[in-house]
Specification:
Elements lengths: L8 H10 L16 E7 L3 E6 L5 E5 L2 E5 L5 E6 L3 E6 L5 E5 L4 E5 L12 E2 L2 E2 L6 E4 L4 E6 L10 E6 L5 E8 L2 E6 L5 E6 L4 E9 L2 E2 L3 E5 L12 E7 L5 E6 L3 E5 L5 E6 L4 E8 L5 E8 L5 E8 L14
Length: about 325
């Protein structure tokens, strides 16, 4: 959802073991890339994801639109306020929905099923935003910001195990947003929107993490207005670089595995909201956000980076 509006040496060594770290010069320079519009939807959009057949999905308003790479698209399903979106091995979709205070579960055909998570310790969730899969253990992590912010530190992050039990990962956050688990399951990245930074946690066991650490502070908006520089959705490439949709900055920031800012790509829109790799070679970066001064429309954009994205889609069950 749109934001309310120093890693240790041990951390780096563990991360390096998970990824063949590439030099920054292996990424194309910003001036050598072009951000192209794929299609528009009637409202601000986010939650871009791809299924096993290569079809994509974006969330906007009450709708989830399904699209093909040539831009053809149609409404696939509706919930109250769909946002972060992932797809499981059996084709089931998990969709964060802040208005119903739940992580929704939808069938491969868009039918709404029983929620995957709707409460913690008997209390309703605040308003789930984004999620990342822990495919090795059958669970997932999700951010739960509700109406949290820098002056209302009530945002949470949770883990849902394969039995469906919800666990608390962290609390007291200023709008937790995009969330990504590394493929070895040892690191969890979390965007803390209203403090304009990305956090990192050492994962000690499924659903258990070490202390909160700052992975990177992101560039500020030239106006100094913190509401115009907030990290939103995130994804990884195969080399371990982290791509951050920087809401209000009209950019995708790329951070190295050490937390260094190494690239800034044009988001193509006003309120850059989410990112995901897709395409036949999984080397195209897809970006969502709002278009226009008041972000009255939403759009999907693409950069042909030629850089392999990390495949986070679990293998399809036969």
């Amino acid at each position: 959802m749109r934001p309310s509006v120093v890693v240790s040496y041990l951390s780096l060594s563990l991360f390096a073991a998970a990824f063949p770290v590439s030099a920054a010069d292996e990424l194309p320079a910003a001036e050598k890339t072009k951000t192209v519009e794929v299609f528009r939807v009637p409202a601000y959009c986010e939650g871009v994801v791809f299924d096993h057949a290569g079809n994509g999905y974006v969330s906007w308003g009450k709708s989830i639109t399904k699209f093909s790479l040539d831009g053809k698209n149609s409404v696939w399903a509706e919930t109250e306020a769909p946002n972060g979106h992932k797809i499981l091995a059996d084709g089931t979709h998990l969709v964060c929905d802040a208005k119903v205070n739940a992580v929704m579960r939808l069938s491969a055909y868009g039918k709404v099923l029983e929620p995957a998570a709707k409460a913690f310790e008997g209390k309703p969730l605040l308003g789930p935003n984004d999620l990342t899969l822990d495919t090795a253990h059958g669970g997932f992590y999700f951010s739960d910001p509700g109406n949290s912010g820098r002056d209302n530190l009530i945002g949470n992050a949770h883990y849902v195990d394969k039995a469906g039990k919800v666990h608390l990962i962290d609390k007291g956050l200023a709008y937790p947003n995009g969330i990504v688990l590394t493929p070895d399951g040892k690191k969890l990245y979390l965007a803390e929107s209203q403090l304009n930074r990305v956090l990192v946690y050492e994962v000690t066991a499924p659903g258990k993490v070490g202390e909160r650490k700052v992975f990177a502070d992101l560039p500020k908006h030239e106006s100094g207005d913190y509401m115009r520089a907030q990290p939103d959705g995130m994804c990884l490439d195969a080399a371990g670089n982290l791509y951050v949709a920087h809401y209000g900055m009209k950019k995708v920031e790329v951070l190295s595995p050490a937390g260094k800012l190494i690239r800034q790509y044009d988001g193509g829109n006003t309120t850059t909201s989410n990112v995901a790799f897709g395409g036949p070679k999984h080397d195209q970066l897809f970006i969502t956000g709002g278009i226009g001064k008041e972000a009255g429309e939403g759009g999907l954009f693409r950069i042909d980076l030629g850089v392999k994205g990390l495949v986070i889609l679990p293998a399809a069950k036969k």
